[in-house]
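Example 9 (inverse folding). The structure is encoded as follows.
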């Protein structure tokens, strides 16, 4: 009885401790589950609303982007069809270059589609982030710093791109135009937003960055001028020579295909230079853009035959006098001044040999 009493007395505390621990853990788990369920029940409406808003924003952005890009594409195709139809007419074929118009419209369409996609999708992304309650201030600040860094690193690329966009919008030149870009001269074979390709007179292809072009001389817009100088002997009948040249130009303006390339009658301007043995008769004509070279060659051919048939002699061009050397530079044979030229200078005395010592016997 003495040993059993302590054991009976000690057992209830352990049982009570075990009973108190079990119900406490279960209550805590139940409370946590209840709190989680209450939190989900309290926020599921917000989640559903935000999810529906994000889906709606994305759907609207995708549909709007597709509609705008398709509208721009249809507009560009309509412009190309109009240019192709106009080129089939007699006057439109002279004023419209279908390939030039097509490349210009395609470049403009590409820029518009890219700008539309960037604006629509960028706005949609910002709206989605605001729906998710994400602070956009750090993101915008980082984007601004990154934009400045990229702008400094790729400023040449940005300059080329912007120059190409304005060049296309202003229609400064196009495919088939003969231009003088300062750094190169030739015929435009391709127009891009960053680079323009030219084919030079010798067949070389020049790649010119649009940002490097400071001036453009377009020789194919509006009209061109064919200019020919005819050297006639000073002892010939100048009035008869003038009438013969005018008749040759009138016959050329009526012949095919020069009647289309000559936009005004050939005009004899008169004497542009007079010397002791020769006189220079200047001829001018307004031609179709880019056709001045061919008109000049044909005009020289016809004028030469007309003057020969009329018995009017052309004067030879003055040839350079052979054997006449250019005046020599008088300072070319002069030596540079030197201290050694003066025999009494310290430098000259230092170069003299040292005499042998005199030994006394």
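The amino acid assigned to each position is listed next.
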């Amino acid at each position: 009885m003495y040993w059993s009493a302590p054991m009976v007395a000690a057992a209830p505390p352990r049982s009570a401790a075990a009973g108190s621990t079990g119900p406490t853990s279960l209550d805590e788990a139940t409370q946590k589950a209840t709190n989680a369920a209450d939190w989900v029940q309290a926020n599921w409406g917000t989640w559903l609303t935000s999810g529906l808003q994000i889906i709606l924003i994305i759907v609207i952005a995708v549909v709007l982007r597709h509609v705008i890009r398709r509208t721009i594409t249809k507009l560009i195709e309509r412009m190309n069809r109009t240019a192709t139809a106009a080129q089939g007419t007699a006057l439109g074929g002279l004023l419209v270059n279908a390939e030039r118009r097509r490349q210009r419209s395609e470049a403009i369409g590409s820029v518009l589609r890219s700008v539309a996609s960037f604006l629509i999708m960028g706005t949609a992304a910002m709206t989605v982030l605001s729906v998710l309650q994400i602070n956009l201030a750090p993101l915008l600040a980082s984007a601004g710093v990154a934009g400045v860094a990229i702008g400094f690193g790729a400023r040449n690329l940005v300059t080329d791109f912007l120059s190409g966009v304005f060049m296309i919008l202003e229609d400064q030149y196009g495919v088939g135009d003969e231009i003088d870009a300062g750094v190169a001269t030739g015929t435009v074979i391709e127009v891009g937003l960053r680079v323009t390709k030219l084919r030079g007179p010798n067949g070389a292809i020049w790649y010119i960055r649009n940002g490097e072009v400071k001036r453009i001389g377009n020789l194919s817009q509006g009209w061109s001028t064919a200019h020919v100088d005819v050297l006639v002997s000073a002892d010939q009948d100048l009035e008869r020579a003038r009438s013969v040249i005018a008749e040759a130009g009138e016959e050329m303006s009526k012949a095919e295909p020069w009647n289309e390339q000559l936009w005004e009658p050939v005009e004899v301007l008169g004497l542009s230079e007079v010397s002791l043995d020769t006189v220079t008769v200047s001829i001018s004509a307004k031609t179709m853009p880019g056709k001045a070279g061919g008109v000049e060659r044909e005009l020289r051919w016809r004028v030469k035959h007309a003057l020969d048939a009329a018995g009017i002699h052309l004067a030879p061009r003055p040839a350079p006098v052979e054997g006449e050397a250019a005046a020599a530079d008088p300072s070319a044979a002069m030596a540079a001044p030197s201290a050694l030229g003066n025999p009494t200078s310290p430098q000259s005395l230092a170069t003299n040999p040292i005499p042998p010592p005199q030994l006394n016997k």
